[in-house]
Amino acid sequence: MTYCLGIVTQYGLVMAADSRTNAGVDYISTYQKLFDFTVPGERVILLATAGNLSMTQEILTILRRDLRAQADVSLHTLPNMYEIARYVGSKVRQVIETHRAWLQQDKIDYQCSFLLGGQIRGEETCLYLIYSQGNFLQATPETPFLQIGETKYGKPILDRTLSYDTSIEAAAKYALLSLDSTMKSNISVGPPLHLIKYAANTFLIKHRVELVLRDPFLIKIRKYWEASLRQAFEGMPAIEWQEGEFADVALLSAIDPEVLPPPS
Amino acid sequence: MTYCLGIVTQYGLVMAADSRTNAGVDYISTYQKLFDFTVPGERVILLATAGNLSMTQEILTILRRDLRAQADVSLHTLPNMYEIARYVGSKVRQVIETHRAWLQQDKIDYQCSFLLGGQIRGEETCLYLIYSQGNFLQATPETPFLQIGETKYGKPILDRTLSYDTSIEAAAKYALLSLDSTMKSNISVGPPLHLIKYAANTFLIKHRVELVLRDPFLIKIRKYWEASLRQAFEGMPAIEWQEGEFADVALLSAIDPEVLPPPS
């Protein structure tokens, strides 16, 4: 598995990814999942990948081949992010179509997905999720983040904190906590982590970071966060229990559904 | 979906469950998922259910029928929790076997699972997870909680905080936060929430609570928790970014995989 995350706010974009790939639990390796196709001063194009590695690698190879061949249609020629999302989606369809029948007959999961984030001069910063079927959706101010891969463990922290008004520095910290929560709960997500912060309308990537296993900063924020959770927890209001000896009533109600009050 | 959670520590047991059942997203209803079969002073038996509702209801009906008929083998006669886990597992197998072929041919998910928690006089407090196949596993001091249903959203808070030394009052609060995180991230989990706290070696349920939608306490702890997360976050160490203008190098490495350093 993998976990990648994009956050777009009015101030810019954050993209983050782990680097773990696994085929079962006994073949685990490290592959970069976050790729930068920026043309400084003109367009910022970031891609993150999840799913079947042989599919995502081949799709990236084709995207790169179009760039190297200076094809008419490529990540560097298309006039806007919507067209780029369509273009990446078409490559996803093309590669999956080539392999689907062979993988399907051996019940191998060929699904993959991409996050596409960036900004082209003249447009707003934007973020797309491109599905295995080649269709895509766009992050909006109401839900300013998109995730691919192992998305669930890292979602609560984002649901509770993020909005379109969040600064990109704060968004980057939340992204890191979201990744760290996922790593802690699922061994199929792991370091090095890659994180990129992009300030809207700069058309340059000025901030990025790679955090390796046992990176002191990663350890520091994990310790800090766990201590903070415990401290926050200390002050949490006490549960207002119904006190009594419930066994008799409960026994009746458990045995005899007829005496239960109707579902509320 | 549903989310149920059990926590066993050296001080006792906490069981918690939501009450939402859905068939797709357009048929959502409320059913109790946490059931108390305690015999005061002798045994505490709690069951929580997830999965196909028609299966779990029928299994509970059979368990209750054995009790009402004062069968030789029932939740109230078996001498220990291990035997009760086996007994519940056998009923799971029996009911699923009755319906499997009919559901399978229409591709309906018939899976279900149970949490069984409690204590019988002469034994330690214990907690089991009984699978749809009737086999089961037991919580241990290393991993003192078990979950069924929509388990992922609520797992990070538990992974970061719980241990076998946690008091049951603290465990109950963490259980509530875990449920609340899940509700916030997944609409298929919802109130009323049921929470039971059992102090080891008392053989009585003295604390339980039902929290309905918009329960003031539920709102209070959610607000408190989100404010605390934000506050904890304020003090979080700054990310130590690599600063620069990365586009050139990144462009090269994104286009030309040959110039990439080998995976670390």
UniProtKB/TrEMBL annotation, chains A, B:
CDD domains xref list: proteasome_beta_bacterial (cd03765)
Gene Ontology annotations for the cellular component aspect, listed alphabetically: proteasome core complex
Entry annotated with the keyword Hydrolase: yes
Keywords annotated in UniProt: Hydrolase, Protease, Proteasome
Domain of life per record: Bacteria
BP-aspect Gene Ontology terms: proteolysis involved in protein catabolic process
UniProt GO molecular function: peptidase activity
Name of the protein: Proteasome-type protease
